[in-house]
From TrEMBL:
<feature type="domain" description="Bacterial Ig-like">
    <location>
        <begin position="140"/>
        <end position="237"/>
    </location>
</feature>
<dbReference type="InterPro" id="IPR013783">
    <property type="entry name" value="Ig-like_fold"/>
</dbReference>
<dbReference type="InterPro" id="IPR044016">
    <property type="entry name" value="Big_13"/>
</dbReference>
<dbReference type="Pfam" id="PF19077">
    <property type="entry name" value="Big_13"/>
</dbReference>
<protein>
    <recommendedName>
        <fullName>Bacterial Ig-like domain-containing protein</fullName>
    </recommendedName>
</protein>
């Protein structure tokens, strides 16, 4: 028996009015179980010959976060000769040959969903489209830097003066960005960086002296930011010995003073020289207050 002219993706049922049992392998297991219902066997075998649906895929993928506004996809498919596509909720495109690349230009920043359907040589379109999702991101802002107030040990909590070498910087940036730090325009390594939403912390060990700290970020789409704000941090771990150098015995209301580097010079009415180390008074502006209010020979 030969049957032709069947339509694709259609189930056919055939009723056989007579069956010559001698032409059937009666020793087959299915016959013993279905010898009273031979019709169902023929029905299953014929419907199983239905051809598969066309199905298209994208040959090469792009990063799910991408900073390119112009993208090309190559479409491949099984049992497919052409395709059509749509972006987000827009209308379907005109039919394109499978060999034609799918080129998208001037995409705006934001999420995109590409839907594609393939068609086979019998004109049957793919029922459920293939989809691919990605985000176009072409902008990134500079990170924001600050010194944690717990590590700012100067006379105020925001003067960026500290007696500590091990410091923690805090900042804001895009989540999962790569942050690169610079000290006086030279790249520096950091011990660790931890993200919590769009905030991060980074731990450093700095040497004695002044440091100009900046940072840039590279976001997950590949965009590189401009430089951050500059943190002018002074690390001062040493206590210098200040001295008072005065001449003469200083009488009440006769004290004059001058500053020369780390020495304060006092003078009075009689010739006498003494040096007083000051090992506990710092910064020097605290000394000014004491001297202005002191009369007579300092203790």
């Amino acid at each position: 028996m030969k049957i032709t002219g069947l339509t694709f993706d259609t189930t056919y049922f055939f009723i056989l009015r007579s069956v010559t049992y001698s032409h059937i392998n009666q020793s087959a297991p299915w016959y013993e179980n279905n010898k009273n219902n031979v019709y169902s066997k023929f029905t299953k075998e014929i419907s199983a010959t239905t051809l598969p649906l066309p199905f298209v895929t994208i040959k090469q993928m792009i990063p799910t976060y991408n900073n390119s506004t112009n993208i090309q996809f190559n479409i491949v498919g099984e049992y497919v000769i052409s395709y059509k596509y749509k972006l987000n909720q827009n209308n379907w495109s005109e039919e394109c040959l499978l060999s034609t690349p799918l080129i998208l230009n001037n995409l705006d920043d934001g999420p995109w969903i590409l839907s594609i359907k393939g068609k086979n040589k019998d004109g049957i379109w793919q029922e459920t489209p293939s989809t691919y999702e990605w985000t176009v991101d072409t902008h990134v802002s500079p990170p924001e830097l600050s010194l944690s107030s717990n590590f700012d040990t100067g006379s105020s909590t925001n003067d960026l003066i500290t007696k500590l070498k091990e410091l923690t910087l805090i900042g804001k940036s895009e989540v999962n960005s790569t942050i690169e730090f610079f000290d006086n325009n030279h790249p520096i390594l950091y011990q660790s960086i931890n993200f919590n939403d769009n905030e991060f912390t980074a731990n450093f060990i700095f040497e004695q002296g002044e440091h100009q700290i900046t940072a840039i970020q590279t976001d997950k789409a590949g965009n590189i930011s401009n430089s951050s704000n500059t943190l002018s941090i002074k690390v001062d771990t040493k206590l210098d010995n200040f001295t008072i150098n005065h001449s003469d015995t200083i009488d009440d209301n006769s004290c004059t003073w001058a500053i020369d580097n780390e020495t304060i010079h006092l003078s009075g009415t009689k010739n006498r020289m003494q040096r007083y180390p000051l090992t506990a008074i710092k910064p020097i502006k605290s000394i000014y207050l004491i001297l202005i209010k002191t009369h007579g020979k300092p203790n």
